[in-house]
């Protein structure tokens, strides 16, 4: 990225700017190329960009067919993940958005949308139970409407609503897509309920997978159901989803603060904490602890990939790439908060580890099995910590938590520019020697003692549960 | 952990004794001048300016003195009584940390000339509280020039010291050999003063200043310590009745013999033995650079064993680069990783060969920093870890961690020139409270010169912020559990046998 506030340099900032004026399809193209060129990299920028794009895609989606919306999101998601499969976060966000769509549908399914496809004379319960026999009971627990409402009553109500919502919905679709969000306040409550009370929800949704472990069939059945539902759907699907995406954006924004909020529970006075690479999350976490406690930070510089960013963050307290609207945000480097910071080369980790009492790692992606992908060097840091019985704490927003299991670890590891290891000026060397520059390390779950996410602290073994809470099994394969 | 032993080490002390004499002295006054203009703009050391001036005067005086000394170097050996010398040395060593003109310093990370910076940095270090980890290691100021060296120091040793401090001669064996060769020259040009005997005077009064000087340039390696102990022992045992010429000849021969037996022959034995451990198809992983590992790999390659090598390397010296280059030039397939990629490198390896700086008596390996990480990862992958180490590097010292005994490296080298340059754009975002931020703002108003804020400013930022420290050491201690085998000239042993071998080798 170029220096200073040159906004035209391709990257997250320029993308977000252009997104305001560009329609969805070219924007998808734009983001794809940015991802491919690594002009947007690292989890947070990717997540922010993807969410913004998703908002745009959903906003521009024309039609009321939920299945088509799902298919559209899926298709965009596939393109984005194909552009840069190792930025797992992109896929995570797409899956979360898909989950939102399904959630909105599910919420409404229980109440009103089961009226038949054409005339509304179908018996919805029958159809539903055919498709998902095991779920009927659990659905009933969270959508009281379903059993409370009598059949004819239900039908009349929905037809009523569909009329009105049609009136509501049609005009905005033809004109602008952003203006009608406030009009749909009633269903919002529903969707929000679904969004942030995951335990209830997921209890209901996980059996889906259990009942039909075969993803494909579940998916096709689901689509069928969606198509069925949405043909007559009268819920304001789009705006609810968009509200959900905005919630997601808020989550992205707040996750650092939420993680930092528990800092004092984990850092006591006079600790020596080792961390590595340049991570806003970790810096904020430490800063928040620094308000009350005195401790010492040892910082491995992650040479040659992230060292510039590391030194930058230590000197100035911020990362250049995430400097998008935070300029008014007065956060400062740790050193300014009176915390002594010792920068060490990565090779010193073992030597220093005997003095360290806690290791705090930043991550790139957290995987469902409790392992994580983090900046190169993380594995040896975690391993050295294990050898010294030093606890390893990983800070990660939930958005980095991915439903992917690391069956093939090498697939997740990106290799970077070898010129940063040995500059290309040294032609003779580069010619003869195979210079490798892995950017990430996979850290197995058994080297991690604790995950701190914006939802709280978790054991690595518990992460699969949080994954189940956030992603639908249908969406795991995009 | 040795660089080129034979070639460079042999050539080194012989060739350059004259050169530094010419270069070092002019550097001193040249340094004093820019410093005079410096304090005004230097926010950090502003308050020191009074003291600075004084220092400067001392420095100039010192430089003059040194110049005078250099014009008539070894000739005036009886110039001062030993007592006087000692006093002078003390005085100088006090000043050493500020007065460091840095004549022919070539550090891997610094290509340009940055002498003033360096001097200031060193003095600043006292104020900065480095006590947390390696504070105890900063007590001894490093010497990077010949200024302030006792005049008894032989030119060959003077040159050698500079080569040590600039890492031109690097690696514990190479340093030891180079030192012994320099001592040979010292002994050859030595004349016992009237009234004393060679056995008494040579060690205490003539060799000691040389050793002190070398120690000031860079802390002595374990092998050097062992060699010095051996040499002193040898000298003391010389029969006072032996004619001086004969005694000197004997000593020189003994030194040659020592090098031949304990280094050359030992290395040959080790390399022969270690090379048999390389099997066809092996992927040998090594860390940084060790002359003995290099020889072993080349030997196996010459024997026609097909194998590949992974070199893992790290800041600050990038020694592995040299090794990788040499091996690749010989036609070996080499892969090169930095330490951050070590966990990937280890996955593909089948054996790990490590060099040593020293083997501790508790079986731990004292070697280039990062070795412990590599062997830890190798062990977690169940790879055999072999340490190749001449018995001259064995020591009776023990260590549990890498913190108690270590050698600090200049911390500002964490940031190479390129890195500093890439950090420059951050200047705008430095916290407002930062002293150098204020300064740079001031500068900008004074003269809009972006070009002026060169890469050196970045170092100033680091220095300027009270809590930010850069820390760099040279060695770490690898636990004995990570080491499967130590190959020495006495055979292949488990690390637990190190003390036994050490006893054997010192008693004979």
From TrEMBL, chain A:
Gene Ontology CC terms, in alphabetical order: cytosol; eukaryotic translation initiation factor 2B complex
Compositionally skewed regions (Basic and acidic residues) per UniProt: 119-130
Record's compositionally biased regions (Low complexity): 153-164
Domain of life from the UniProt record: Eukaryota
GO molecular function, one term: translation initiation factor activity
Record region (Disordered): 107-131, 151-181, 199-218
Localization terms from the record: Cytoplasm, Cytosol
Pfam families found in the cross-reference section: IF-2B
Coiled coil: 238-265
Keywords: Coiled coil, Cytoplasm, Initiation factor, Protein biosynthesis
Compositional bias per record (Polar residues), positions renumbered to this chain: 199-209
Family of the protein in this entry: Belongs to the eIF-2B alpha/beta/delta subunits family.
Subunit note: Component of the translation initiation factor 2B (eIF2B) complex which is a heterodecamer of two sets of five different subunits: alpha, beta, gamma, delta and epsilon. Subunits alpha, beta and delta comprise a regulatory subcomplex and subunits epsilon and gamma comprise a catalytic subcomplex. Within the complex, the hexameric regulatory complex resides at the center, with the two heterodimeric catalytic subcomplexes bound on opposite sides.
The protein, known as: Translation initiation factor eIF2B subunit beta
UniProtKB/TrEMBL annotation, chain B:
Amino acid composition bias (Polar residues), ranges on this chain: 109-118
Keywords for the protein's UniProt record, in alphabetical order: Cytoplasm, Initiation factor, Protein biosynthesis
Bias (Basic and acidic residues) ranges: 32-45, 52-63, 83-100
Region (Disordered): 1-126
SUPFAM superfamilies to which the protein is assigned, alphabetical: NagB/RpiA/CoA transferase-like (SSF100950)
Chief location bin: cytoplasm
Gene Ontology cellular-component terms listed: cytosol
Biased composition (Low complexity): 20-31, 68-82
Gene3D superfamilies: Translation initiation factor eif-2b, domain 2
Subunit structure: Component of the translation initiation factor 2B (eIF2B) complex which is a heterodecamer of two sets of five different subunits: alpha, beta, gamma, delta and epsilon. Subunits alpha, beta and delta comprise a regulatory subcomplex and subunits epsilon and gamma comprise a catalytic subcomplex. Within the complex, the hexameric regulatory complex resides at the center, with the two heterodimeric catalytic subcomplexes bound on opposite sides.
UniProt-recorded name of the protein: Translation initiation factor eIF2B subunit delta
Taxonomic classification: Eukaryota, Fungi, Dikarya, Ascomycota, Pezizomycotina
């Amino acid at each position: 990225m170029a220096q200073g506030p040159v906004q035209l340099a391709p990257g997250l900032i320029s993308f977000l700017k252009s997104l305001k004026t560009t329609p969805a399809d070219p924007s998808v193209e734009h983001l794809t190329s940015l991802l491919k060129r690594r002009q947007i990299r690292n989890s947070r920028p990717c997540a922010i960009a993807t969410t913004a794009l998703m908002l745009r895609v959903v906003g521009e989606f024309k039609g009321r067919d939920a299945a088509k919306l799902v298919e559209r999101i899926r298709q965009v998601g596939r393109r984005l993940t194909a552009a840069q499969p190792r930025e797992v976060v992109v896929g995570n966000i797409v899956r979360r958005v898909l989950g939102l769509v399904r959630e909105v549908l599910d919420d409404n399914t229980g109440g009103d949308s089961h009226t038949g496809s054409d005339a509304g004379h179908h018996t919805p319960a029958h159809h539903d139970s055919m498709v998902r026999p095991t779920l009927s009971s659990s659905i009933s627990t969270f959508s009281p409407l379903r059993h409370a409402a009598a059949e004819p009553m239900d039908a009349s109500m929905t037809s009523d609503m569909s009329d009105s919502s049609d009136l509501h919905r049609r005009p905005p679709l033809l004109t602008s897509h952003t203006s009608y969000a406030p009009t749909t306040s009633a269903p919002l409550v529903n969707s929000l309920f679904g969004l942030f009370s995951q335990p209830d929800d997921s209890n209901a949704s996980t059996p889906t997978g259990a009942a039909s472990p075969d993803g494909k069939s579940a998916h096709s059945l689901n689509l069928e159901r969606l198509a069925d539902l949405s043909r007559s759907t009268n819920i304001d699907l789009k705006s609810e989803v968009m509200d959900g995406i905005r919630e997601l954006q808020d989550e992205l924004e707040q996750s650092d603060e939420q993680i930092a909020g528990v800092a004092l529970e984990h850092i006591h006075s006079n600790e020596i904490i080792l961390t590595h690479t340049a991570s806003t999350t970790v810096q904020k976490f430490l800063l928040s602890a620094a308000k009350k406690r005195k401790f010492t930070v040892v910082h491995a510089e992650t040479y040659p990939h992230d060292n510039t960013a590391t030194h930058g963050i230590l000197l100035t307290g911020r990362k250049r790439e995430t400097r998008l609207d935070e300029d008014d945000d007065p956060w400062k480097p740790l050193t300014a908060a009176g915390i002594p910071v010792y920068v060490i080369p990565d090779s010193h980790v073992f030597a220093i580890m005997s003095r360290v009492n806690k290791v705090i790692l930043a991550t790139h992606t957290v995987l469902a099995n409790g392992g994580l992908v983090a900046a190169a060097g993380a594995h040896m840091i975690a391993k050295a910590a294990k050898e010294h019985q030093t606890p390893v704490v990983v800070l990660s927003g939930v958005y980095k938590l991915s439903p992917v299991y690391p069956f093939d670890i090498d697939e997740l590891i990106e290799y970077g520019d070898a010129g940063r290891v040995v500059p290309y000026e040294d032609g003779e060397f580069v010619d003869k020697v195979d210079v490798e520059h892995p950017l990430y390390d996979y850290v197995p779950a058994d080297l991690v003692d604790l995950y701190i996410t914006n939802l709280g602290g978790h054991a690595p073994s518990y992460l699969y549960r949080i994954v189940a809470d956030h992603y639908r099994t249908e969406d795991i394969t995009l | 952990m040795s660089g080129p032993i034979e070639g460079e080490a042999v050539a080194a002390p012989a060739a350059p004794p004259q050169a530094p004499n010419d270069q070092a002295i002019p550097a001193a006054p040249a340094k004093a001048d820019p410093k005079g203009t410096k304090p005004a703009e230097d926010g950090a050391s502003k308050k020191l300016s009074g003291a600075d001036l004084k220092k400067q005067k001392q420095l100039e005086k010192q430089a003059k003195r040194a110049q005078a000394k250099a014009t008539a170097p070894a000739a005036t050996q009886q110039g001062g009584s030993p007592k006087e010398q000692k006093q002078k040395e003390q005085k100088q060593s006090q000043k050493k940390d500020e007065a460091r003109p840095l004549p022919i310093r070539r550090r891997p990370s610094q290509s340009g000339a940055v002498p003033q910076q360096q001097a200031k940095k060193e003095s600043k270090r006292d104020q900065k509280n480095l006590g947390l980890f390696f504070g105890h290691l900063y007590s001894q100021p490093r010497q990077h020039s010949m200024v302030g060296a006792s005049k008894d120091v032989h030119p060959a040793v003077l040159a050698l010291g500079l080569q040590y401090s600039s890492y031109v001669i690097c690696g514990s064996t190479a340093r030891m050999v180079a030192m012994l060769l320099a001592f040979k020259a010292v002994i050859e040009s030595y004349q016992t003063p009237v009234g004393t005997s060679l056995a008494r005077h040579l060690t205490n009064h003539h060799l000691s200043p040389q050793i002190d000087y070398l120690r000031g340039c860079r802390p002595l390696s374990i092998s050097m310590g062992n060699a010095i102990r051996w040499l002193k022992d040898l000298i003391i045992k010389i029969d006072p009745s032996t004619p001086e010429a004969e005694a000197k000849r004997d000593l020189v021969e003994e030194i040659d013999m020592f090098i031949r037996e304990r280094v050359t022959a030992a290395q040959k034995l080790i390399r022969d033995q270690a090379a048999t451990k390389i099997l066809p198809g092996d992927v040998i992983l090594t860390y940084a650079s060790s002359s003995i590992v290099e020889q072993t790999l080349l030997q196996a390659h010459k024997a026609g064993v097909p194998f590949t090598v992974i070199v893992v390397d790290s800041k600050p010296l990038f020694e592995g680069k040299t090794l990788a280059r040499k091996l690749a030039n010989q036609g070996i397939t080499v892969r090169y990783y930095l330490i951050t990629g070590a966990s990937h490198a280890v996955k593909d390896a089948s054996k790990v060969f490590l060099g040593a700086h020293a083997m501790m008596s508790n079986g731990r390996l004292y070697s280039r920093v990062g070795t412990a990480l590599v062997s830890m990862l190798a062990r977690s992958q169940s790879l055999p870890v072999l340490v190749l180490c001449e018995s001259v590097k064995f020591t009776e010292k023990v260590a549990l961690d890498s913190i108690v005994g270590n050698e600090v490296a200049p911390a500002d080298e964490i940031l190479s020139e390129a890195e500093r340059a890439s950090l420059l754009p951050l200047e705008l975002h430095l916290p407002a409270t930062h002293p150098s931020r204020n300064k740079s703002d001031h500068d900008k108003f004074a003269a809009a010169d972006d070009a002026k804020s060169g890469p050196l400013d970045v170092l100033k930022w680091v220095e300027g912020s009270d809590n930010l420290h850069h820390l760099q050491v040279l060695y770490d201690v690898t636990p004995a559990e990570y080491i499967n085998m130590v190959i020495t000239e006495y055979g292949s042993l488990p690390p637990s046998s190190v003390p036994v071998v050490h006893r054997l080798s010192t008693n004979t």
